[in-house]
Design a protein that fits this description.
Layout lengths: L13 H6 L12 E8 L9 E5 H4 L14 E5 L11 H6 L2 H7 L4 E6 L4 H12 L3 E7 L8 H9 L1 E5 L1 H4 L2 H13 L4 E4 H7 L15 E4 L7 H15 L10 E7 L3 H12 L4 E7 L14 H12 L8 H14 L4 E5 L6 H8 L1 H5 L4
Parallel strand pairs: 3-11, 4-5, 4-8, 5-6, 7-8, 9-10, 9-11
Antiparallel strand pairs: 1-2, 1-3
């Protein structure tokens, strides 16, 4: 018998907790594509496998021939959640942004790297929800704004911070928020608000026109962020493809680890036989934040065969691990969470332009 899905603190069931939460996303739904792993026919070195998107190619005979009986895994297409701010970033804001607005937030301050997907997501979704976004970006303004940097500039109020200033993030964020609030406004950390209660039932807006500035730390890792990811787990567990008694092995790329923790916590609290593997890129200085030879070509290879665009640092690593797992583990269904990040390719194309202009096989 599966354990009763409940939170240890308070004894409130996860289903009740999630149903009582106000959400930013109108639905937790996400497309799920099935990928078949085939032997490669390419003479290009490094192309050990070929791929077929069975979900989109079934009408053209996909799933027949070589694809029949081949190893396969599933991709949760969270990269399609929003045209500009997608992936795990809106999942982490899903419960957080409504809570901050309920607490009367007029402005939100956050920070990130020059091509931060988190910063862009905060800018876009705050603008959609009528909250003024203020973004502190590390480094200098680009000569040609592109990718997530351009989105942050279009939707948010961007200030660039030197690397020495950015190294003291908390002080930087608080000082900037204080300037925005002015003499009559208030400044609060989002984490402090979250700590008061998981669910807010009343509007605490001042109503006197003063600014209430909320600070969201880099990456938005918080309890509310976990709730947004747990909502995704609940949705996936309701799909026929991933029946609640199925063994599922989820693979996700990991930066702060918030998404992976949310997935694992959701599985445990919902009593699912699901395992979560987080693929982190912080093992060596040579690897972290860098594109290795052949990775951009591999992303192009996958995009042309499946219609799924990956970035060469994060989602490509999760894809490669999912391929390895589905070839070795026949008992569990392997599921990769696509965490977005594809707009970051615009920035990478400036840094690694020769690799993007070289033709493919």
């Amino acid at each position: 018998m599966r354990p009763t899905p409940a939170l240890a603190a308070g004894g409130r069931t996860v289903a009740n907790l999630l149903s009582a939460t106000e959400w930013m996303l109108p639905s937790p739904a996400s497309q799920v594509h099935t990928i078949s792993v085939l032997p490669s026919q390419s003479p290009t070195p490094g192309h050990e496998f070929a791929f077929s998107n069975l979900t989109t190619s079934l009408g053209n005979g996909g799933g027949k021939g070589l694809a029949a009986g081949s190893p396969r895994f599933h991709v949760v297409r969270d990269d399609l959640l929003h045209p500009l701010a997608n992936g795990n970033k809106p999942r982490k804001l899903d419960a957080l942004l409504p809570l901050l607005r309920c607490r009367g937030a007029t402005d939100i301050v956050t920070c990130g790297g020059c091509q931060s997907a988190h910063a862009a997501a905060v800018a876009v979704h705050c603008a959609e929800w009528g909250i003024r976004p203020h973004i502190l970006l590390r480094g200098e303004q680009l000569d040609i704004p592109t990718g997530y940097n351009l989105i942050s500039l279009m939707f948010g109020n961007v200030t660039y911070a030197s690397r020495s200033v950015y190294a003291q993030r908390d002080e930087m964020l608080y000082e900037h928020a204080t300037k925005i609030a002015g003499s009559n406004g208030t400044v609060m950390w989002a984490d402090d608000i979250i700590g008061e209660d998981l669910v807010v039932d009343e509007d605490t807006t001042d109503g006197n026109g003063s600014r209430r500035v909320m600070i969201v730390k880099e990456g938005a890792g918080s309890v509310q962020a976990l709730l947004g990811v747990m909502r995704l787990v609940e949705y996936l567990s309701g799909l026929t493809l991933f029946g609640q008694d199925e063994k599922v092995h989820i693979v996700v790329d990991s930066g702060t680890g918030t998404t992976a923790v949310g997935l694992a916590l959701g599985a445990v609290c919902l009593g699912l036989q699901w395992r979560v593997t987080a693929v982190m890129l912080a093992d060596t200085l040579e690897r972290f934040g860098k594109v290795l030879d052949g990775e951009i070509m591999m992303c192009r290879h996958i995009a042309q065969q499946t219609g799924i665009l990956l970035d060469p640092m994060y989602t490509l690593s999760a894809w490669e691990h999912a391929v390895d797992l589905c070839r070795r583990d026949s008992e569990a269904k392997v599921v990769m969470i696509h965490t977005g990040g594809t707009l970051g390719l615009f920035g990478l194309a400036q840094r690694y332009s020769p690799q993007f202009t070289t033709g493919s096989d």
